[in-house]
Amino acid sequence: MSMWVVIGIIVGVLGIIISNIMLLKYSAKFKMPKAYTPPDAPGKKQAEAAKGEEPEHKRADQD
């Protein structure tokens, strides 16, 4: 291998490493959104009915 090919490979690897470090520093400035809370599961209403409890939306209307 010629000397220029070795130098090119070294420069390429260093370029990739430096660009990844710069990307990590840049992305660290962004704020993460709050944790996702999924909506009520469809089986929850069936479980409340089996226990004999009223669904939450009916309880809130009575207050």
Walk me through what this model shows:
The protein is an all-alpha fold and 63 residues long. The chain has a domain at 1-30. 67% of the residues lie in helices and 0% in strands. It is built from three helices and no strands. The radius of gyration is 29 Å and the shape is rod-shaped.
Kindly list the characteristics that best describe this protein.
63 residues; mainly alpha; 3 helices
Radius of gyration: 29 Å
Order of helices and strands: HHH
Percent strand equals under 5%
Q: What is the average per-residue confidence, as pLDDT, rounded to a whole number? A: 78
Number of helical stretches of at least 4 residues:
3
What general form does the structure show? rod-shaped
**Main sheet specs:** none
Outline of this structure?
The chain is mostly helical and 63 residues long. It has helices at 3-27, 42-51, 56-62.
Please specify the SSE layout and strand pairing.
Elements: H1 3-27, H2 42-51, H3 56-62
